Amino acid sequence: MLYLIDLANELGAREIVTRTEEYQQVHHVLVAVDPQWIHLYKLYLMGEPFKGKQYTEEYLYYKNPWEYAKEYNSFPVPVYFDIHWRPPAEIYDYDSNLIIKILLRPGTEPVNMEGINSRMRIIQEHAPVARFQAINAKDPISPLQGGVSISPGAANAGTLGGILRDRYSSDYYGLTCGHVAPVNFTDVEHPSTLDHSTTTVIGSTYYVDVPSVAATTHCTMYDGTTFFHQMDLSLIKLNAKADLKIINIGRLDGIALARDLYTGMWAEFNGRTSGHRTLILGAIGITGKVDNGSGSECCFEHLVQLQDYAVANLNKVTPTQDGDSGAWVIVDTPQGRMWAGMVIGGDRKQVGWFIMAEKITDHLKNAGFELEVA
């Protein structure tokens, strides 16, 4: 999905991001593909005419999605977009099919965007700041698999997202978030001591990258004064018998490339609190802030949203919950069932957030680890 940021930068995203950095109430700036354009592209691929019943239904849905809840912004099978395709001008007259979303802290005033030279539409929405998620329960699993409850003692708990194998040895590693198991060479137990009276030490943390709190109240992207995190991970060297599976999902075929992920793509994960969830990918963050759970915030870039595919479901359960941190996000592609990323938190209402798997494996490779999922 990084190509969306590259394209958005060509269309004026840098100026938008720089403007938002002046405002404390902004906690995320995102780029997304217009759902209306996605539907028109779907009709184009199907060879449908851009008139009549299909467009009338789409128009009603786009204007009032709460009452006309029909799913037009996702595809039943993986599809590669031609992002430069243009619908007929008489039904889609926007300069760009990209939308910039500015997320504001609840109850704050919108940002003044007058004078911004951008071909993209700008939407400002109120949404809670994302929070790291680490609490709650699961039962013992043997042999060990991904998607299970873990904790480094009684202080914290989260999800063991999945298991990685060293390409050149017989070593196995579990992966979770750095804020779940933040201290190197600490024993990690399954299930969490918060969840079960009988626990087993499955290994110890071997490499940890925990986000630090921003030194300033502003996350400034382009002036070089702010360090933007891309990682929040803890690699656990396992001593327990392990299986390269994720409970309720199964075996994986590989790692999804960032370029193969797109808005509206179906995804699933198994978290220790939420259990198995099926969701869709939302927008990708150019910049963003994440609350570390103690009232302080970390600056992040390139986080991707997880959203529920049906608005009505948000009344029942949020996309991710406390305790899901570390869960692996899985997508189906023409190459098979692939690891797409790792959940690091959510806003407790409308979206979860994850780090892309390709970013994680590149980071670990630079740290000296050659790991694979299958």
Automatic annotation (TrEMBL):
InterPro entries: Peptidase_S1_PA. It comes from the Bacteria. This is Trypsin. It comes from Chitinophaga arvensicola.
